[in-house]
Design a protein that fits this description.
binds zinc ion, 475 residues, 18 strands, Rossmann fold, five-stranded antiparallel sheet, Isoleucyl-tRNA Synthetase, Domain 1, alpha/beta
């Protein structure tokens, strides 16, 4: 039985999906106004571990991760300050959507680099405004929300469950607003803990018409609307960073349950934060690290992946270069083991798999899954792999033993995601990219053709144009 630690109940609970064999999951994703650092990727690594584990356990998963491209204000608690994306776009002197597209692509590149399996949907907030308006209108109709000029606020006094997730009922917010702009916003609210569903600001670049006035949606309403669009009124799992618990997820619950009258989410899972060499990561302090920089410095993407996932998601993580070195050595041992198995499966002593080997593989499989079943106990799951490797390394494996062990490793790699990508699929991918590039060149889109060549180069593939067509080799 799978058990998860539900933030809502603060307990380990058996995971009972709404529909047997299926799992609907919503992950709070990036606000695409800047580069995602390793702390962010730790949270995405956690959702990837969860997704891959549910896949391994045979669930038909529907995974949705939002892309926030409007409405996320600097002062999340007081609904005040500039829209993060628009402030960054003004600074860069580009259109907000241009900036969003750039950072969205960079985000996806980072996911690919760390071999994070793609979600099934990446909805953009700006493309779901009608769905948000529907919920806001519903809340107004029920008297759970109220208008202040062209703006709409949620009346928290109308939702008794507010505070259940975070334990924070928002009562202390009154004293908190010290900045002038926050004071102005707070003065519009009936109660300080009420929060914005719809804001109006003539200077805002991205605006929409709504029945109550022109403006833009608040950040929290995006996730209520997009999760409902793709997963329905009630779904199985919602994840985020622990900093999302309040106010973001508390407000999502209030909006969704206030609107539908049904339970919003069954299981809430939150990833703890990450410090860098013992310090809080802060761009303003110059203390921030991005995965691509680590790779440029010679670190291996799969080792970074492994390291970020190796600390239990509910434990705060202290990212250090020293520990990354240790993780790299561990991954290399596994990869070397995998290589030697491949060699043995081919050239080792003849023979079918021994009963003893098959039994230890079966046992390892059971222990591996059981460890992850227990709220994703990844340390124990990894220990199972190293135990198995040690005991098999001490034996003279036959071709059959090696083949059986390779089968086991391929199975667990559905979760690990560290084994070399199969040669055939890489070749097929390269061939496909070459075709794409040829097509781009035929339509004289040299920008696209250069981009494809650079993409391949980043994967260590060099393209060579020759009279009889394009050939490729490894760098
Ligand atoms: Zn969210």
């Amino acid at each position: 039985m799978i058990r998860f630690h539900n933030t809502l109940s603060r307990k380990l609970e058996d995971f009972v999906p709404i529909v047997a064999g299926k799992a609907g999951m919503y992950n709070c994703g990036p606000t695409v106004y800047s580069s995602q650092h390793i702390g962010n990727y730790r949270a995405y690594g956690f959702t990837d571990l969860l997704r891959r584990f549910l896949d391994l356990r045979g669930f038909e998963v529907t995974q949705v991760m939002n892309i926030t491209d409007v409405g996320h204000l600097r002062d999340e608690v007081h609904d005040a300050g500039e829209d993060k994306l628009e402030a960054a776009a003004r600074k860069a002197k580009v259109d907000p959507q241009q900036l969003a597209a750039m950072y969205t692509q960079e985000f996806f590149d980072g996911l690919d680099l760390l071999r994070v399996r793609r979600a099934h949907h990446y909805p953009r907030a700006t493309q779901h405004v009608p769905q948000m308006i529907e919920i806001i209108q519903g809340l107004l109709d029920k008297g759970i929300a109220y208008r202040v000029g062209d703006e709409v606020y949620y009346d928290v006094s109308r939702f008794p469950g507010y505070g259940a997730l975070s334990g924070n009922r928002g009562d202390e917010l009154e004293a908190g607003a010290s900045e002038r702009v926050a004071d102005e916003v707070m003065a519009k609210k009936r109660h300080p803990r009420d929060f914005a569903l719809w804001k109006s600001d003539p200077h805002h670049i991205q605006q929409w018409d709504a029945p109550w006035g022109r403006g833009f949606p608040g950040w929290h309403i995006e996730c209520s609307a997009m999760s409902r669009t793709y997963l329905g009124d009630t779904f199985d799992i919602h994840t985020g960073g622990e900093n999302n618990i309040f106010p973001h997820h508390e407000c999502e619950i209030a909006q969704s349950e206030g609107f539908t009258g049904k339970r919003f989410v069954n299981v809430w899972l939150h990833a703890a934060h990450l410090n860098l060499e013992g310090e809080k990561m802060a761009k303003s302090e110059g203390n921030v690290l991005y995965p691509k920089d680590l790779v440029a410095q010679g670190e291996s993407p799969v080792a970074i992946r492994w390291y970020l996932q190796s600390v239990h998601y509910r434990q705060p993580m202290n990212f250090t270069r020293e520990a990354l070195k240790g993780a790299t050595a561990g991954v290399e041992r596994l990869l070397n083991f995998h290589d030697s198995l491949k060699h043995r499966a081919d050239k080792g002593p003849e023979g079918v798999a021994a009963v003893k080997v098959v039994e230890s593989l079966d046992e390892a499989r059971v222990r591996y899954v059981a460890a992850l079943d227990e709220d994703l106990n990844v340390a124990e799951a990894n220990a199972v792999l190293f135990d198995l490797m040690r005991s098999l390394n001490a034996m003279d494996l036959t071709r059959g033993d090696a083949a059986a062990t390779l089968g086991f490793l391929t199975d667990v790699d559905q979760v690990l995601g560290i084994l070399p990508v199969a040669e055939e699929s890489l070749e097929a991918e390269v061939e496909r990219k070459i075709q794409e590039r040829e097509a781009a060149r035929r339509r004289k889109d040299f920008k696209a053709s250069d981009r494809i060549r650079d993409e391949l180069l980043a994967k260590g593939i060099v393209l060579m144009d020759s009279p009889d067509g394009v050939r490729w080799r490894r760098k």
